[in-house]
């Protein structure tokens, strides 16, 4: 199974900041990577797929990049509603697997 | 807009079988455009993919759970179901059903709200 590792596991930031979360796959997954946002008590919400394609309805301040084994999620100007936990997920091969999550907290 | 809703017992005894159903509205489980999946999340932890089913009945399970998992589909009720046998406390989790787009990019685009299942005597 492909192992997905995110960094950092958690960090604090302020509204208006630009933040970047990193996801690394244990083997190459081309661009078969998605990012999800999860708020407490809620289901994950799809933000980005194909490493860089924004899901319909997702604000343009979210962006993704990368291919192969290294990927990033960037939020260009943090809004209050962006404080949440973010997960990457590979769907290059089964079983699909998720990173351990990055918790983004308000500074 | 498609909606998914999980249902089933919130408490299961150790060694018994966990059974959950996902009811789909605003879309059809008979559509060849999607797979229908289960994903779980232990309290305070990350996400684990359990498996999926296609309308034809073909399935794909996580090898870590394969010996204990059965996913089935009932097209007449527009539902799909999860059975997990011989449960232990490690199976305590929020269980989500989700839709996977059938195509090059197998993304989970719609999710149910999740249901907490606790394994305890």
Could you characterize what this model shows?
The complex is a heterodimer of chains A (107) and B (121). Chain A has 107 residues and is an all-beta fold. Chain A is 0% helix and 50% strand. Chain A contains no helices and eleven strands. Chain A has strands spanning 4-7, 10-13, 19-25, 33-38, 45-49, 53-54, 62-67, 70-75, 85-90, 97-98, 102-106. In chain A, the strands form two sheets. In chain A, strands 2, 4, 5, 6, 9, 10 and 11 form a seven-stranded mixed beta sheet that branches. A four-stranded antiparallel beta sheet of chain A has the order 1-3-8-7, with no helix packed on it. In chain A, strand 4 (33-38) and strand 5 form a beta hairpin. Chain A is globular. Chain B has 121 residues and is an all-beta fold. Chain B has no helices and eleven strands. Chain B has strands at 3-7, 11-12, 18-25, 34-41, 48-54, 59-61, 69-74, 79-84, 93-101, 108-111, 115-119. In chain B, strands 2, 4, 5, 6, 9, 10 and 11 form a seven-stranded mixed beta sheet that branches. A four-stranded antiparallel beta sheet of chain B has the order 1-3-8-7, with no helix packed on it. Chain B is globular, with a radius of gyration of 14 Å. The termini of chain B are far apart. The A-B interface holds A 1, 32, 34, 36, 42-46, 49-50, 53, 55, 87, 89, 91, 94-101 and B 46-49, 51, 60-64, 96, 98, 105-109, 111-114.
């Amino acid at each position: 199974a492909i192992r997905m590792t995110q960094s950092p596991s958690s960090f604090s930031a302020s509204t208006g900041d630009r933040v970047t979360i990193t996801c690394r796959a244990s083997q190459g997954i081309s661009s078969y990577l998605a990012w999800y946002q999860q708020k407490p008590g809620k289901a994950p919400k799809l933000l980005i797929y194909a490493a860089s394609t924004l899901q319909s309805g997702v604000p343009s301040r979210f962006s993704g990049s990368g291919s192969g084994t290294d990927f990033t999620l960037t939020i260009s100007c943090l809004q209050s509603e962006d404080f949440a936990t973010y997960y990457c997920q590979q769907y290059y091969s089964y079983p699909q697997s998720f990173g351990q999550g990055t918790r983004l907290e308000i500074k | 807009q498609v909606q998914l809703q999980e249902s089933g017992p919130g408490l299961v005894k150790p060694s018994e079988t966990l059974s959950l159903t996902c009811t789909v509205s605003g879309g059809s489980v008979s559509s060849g455009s999607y797979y229908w999946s289960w994903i779980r999340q232990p309290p305070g932890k990350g996400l684990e993919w359990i498996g999926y089913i296609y309308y034809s009945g073909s399935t794909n399970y996580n090898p870590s759970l394969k010996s204990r998992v059965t996913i089935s589909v009932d097209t007449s009720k527009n539902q799909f179901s999860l059975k997990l046998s011989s449960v232990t406390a490690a199976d305590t989790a929020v269980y989500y059903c989700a839709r996977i787009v059938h195509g090059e990019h197998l993304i989970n685009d719609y999710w149910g709200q999740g249901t907490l299942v606790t394994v305890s005597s």
